[in-house]
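Our example copied in:
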Amino acid sequence: MAKEKLNQIKKPKKPLRQVLFQSLKKLIYLLLVLSIAGLIYLINNSKLFEPSIAWEIKSDFENLTKEYDDLEVPDIINKYFLETITHQYDDLVKPALINKYFIELSKIKEKVEDHPWVSKATVERVFWNKIKVTVENHDIAMRWGTKGFISSHGVLFQPRFLISSDAPIGVTSEEKIEQFYTDFTNYKSILDPVEITHFERSNIDQLTLDSNIKIILGYQKQNERLELFVKVYENLKKYKKVRTRGIFDMRYPKGFALSYSPL
């Protein structure tokens, strides 16, 4: 056994230079790993990759913004809208920005379009997490009673806060909004330049004009009856009583009935 040990070849010792080189090599690798880890930590905690959203809002409220100083006290809700609308959009998209390394533009679009004032949102990535969101707000073509608005596309929207508006008032069921608005635009074109201030649809259609004239159209042949009213009114508008208090019931087969609102 002793002879066997003596016969074993002794491994030559590594030169000191080689040992130092290998140690230095390992140290460099360690420093490189630590540097990368530190860099990742710094980047993760810096604002370099924080999402940044630029908002472009297209709506009639841009004109209100320019006239901000001229808004009167009754328009306080308008002021509230102008000051908070972008903040509301920011709050809406926060859930879509939790993972700053993977932001889905479709999620941002979906969140923005959840806002009742928004008709359409377009989202584009400008650079990395620099995102531009273009928002098209609903316009106000009609007021839906005191509960909301109808846009010029015939879309009903009901924001939490209603702003003041002098748009015509529409009264109808929620399920029939689209056809209701289509009929309103038809009536409006027939009466032009006279404006409709109130349009109510229950079992029959009734209009109130800007001069306080009321027109009862019934539930059928409304366009035909309204065209007849235009011809009749042209001959009767010279009378102040007709112009200011007239009630035209156009449901008669061969004519109409004229009465007057009480003083």
